[in-house]
Design brief:
TIM Barrel
């Protein structure tokens, strides 16, 4: 029986992975650096959130793009836990929207970028996830959103230069945002910003499943621009709880060098909310999150070891 198209694409990626691993084994020696996007733990005290990650062997954490915890207190919590900040997940609501037709809203987004870039730099993080539009607003205001957003972000380059933090653009499914849903659209957006300091991407295999023809091919298309890759399964649960081929995602990640220092695999199994930011302000269901973290890292590391043995 002839394989289906997605199976053929999986096989092509596997063949390339095996060939490249044999040709340059030194490039595959280092394992992927795992991180967790901590904002989904809601209002839980930061020390408790970090302890959950420490118990499960995490070395890195993606902090919430929020400066409500004083930077000195956050830095102390990180040092006490032994966990390093990888970067920050930007929270771009309709109230701080780079693509808004209202100048005051765009200004709020720019001021937010300035504050969080400085904050994450102080904590030792290296990237800041930027969403070109507003999460939770899937309908376009007009046909000029890309142009306004790109111009507004270009005006923030001075903040990235000062902080040394990389802005990474994340394509998000069309049910959540009005623009930049695919890797190709994110690359077009980077071209529109047209600044060498704004040239990196944040991927998310859940969003890729929704917007791309093939998750593995989308990861490979990102190439060296991919700084961070969010992990959640097809139902936005822990990897292994849905239908995404995690092995292929892992192989594609290795092929684009995601096991290099300064690049991260970050779990973000949020659940199927049209506006997932609701998790960031609610109470933490400790037993659910304990199990979610444990299941995610155990399954992913198990699959990574199987892939590495090929």
């Amino acid at each position: 029986m002839k394989p289906q198209n997605f199976v053929l694409k999986n096989q092509t990626i596997k063949k390339r992975f095996v060939e490249e691993k044999r040709r340059r084994p030194e490039s595959f020696e280092r394992r992927l650096s795992l991180s967790w996007s901590i904002w989904m733990f809601g209002t839980e005290p930061i020390d408790e959130s970090l302890e959950r990650l420490r118990r499960n062997g995490f070395e890195y954490v993606e902090i919430k793009g929020d400066t409500s915890i004083p930077k000195e207190a956050m830095n102390k919590a990180l040092k006490n836990s032994g966990i390093k900040a990888s970067g920050a997940c930007g929270m771009f609501s309709p109230q701080r929207d780079l693509s808004s037709p209202l100048e005051e809203v765009r200004k709020k987004a720019q001021e937010y970028i300035r504050e969080v870039s400085s904050y994450i730099s102080f904590l030792g993080g290296t990237y800041f996830i930027v969403v070109p539009g507003a999460v939770g607003r899937p309908d376009a205001v007009d046909g000029l959103e890309m142009e306004r957003s790109a111009e507004a972000l270009r005006q923030c380059v001075c903040y990235f230069k000062e902080s040394g933090v990389k802005p990474v653009i994340e394509p998000i499914r069309s049910a959540e945002v009005s623009l930049v849903h695919t890797v190709d659209e994110a690359l077009d957006y980077l071209d529109m910003v047209d600044d060498p300091l704004v040239n990196c991407l944040n991927g998310d295999i859940y969003h890729m499943l929704n917007g791309e023809q093939h998750v593995g091919e989308a990861i490979i298309k990102c190439g060296e621009r991919l700084v961070n890759l969010h992990i959640a399964d097809s139902n936005r649960d822990a990897p292994g709880k849905g239908q995404i081929d995690i092995d292929t995602a892992i192989m594609a990640a290795y092929l684009v060098g995601m096991n290099q220092k300064g690049r991260f695999i970050t779990f973000e199994p949020l659940g199927p909310y049209p506006d997932p930011y609701v998790l960031s302000t609610g109470p933490c269901d400790v037993s659910v999150m304990d199990r979610l973290v444990k299941d995610s890292v155990e399954y992913f590391r198990e699959r990574e070891e199987i892939v590495r043995s090929l």
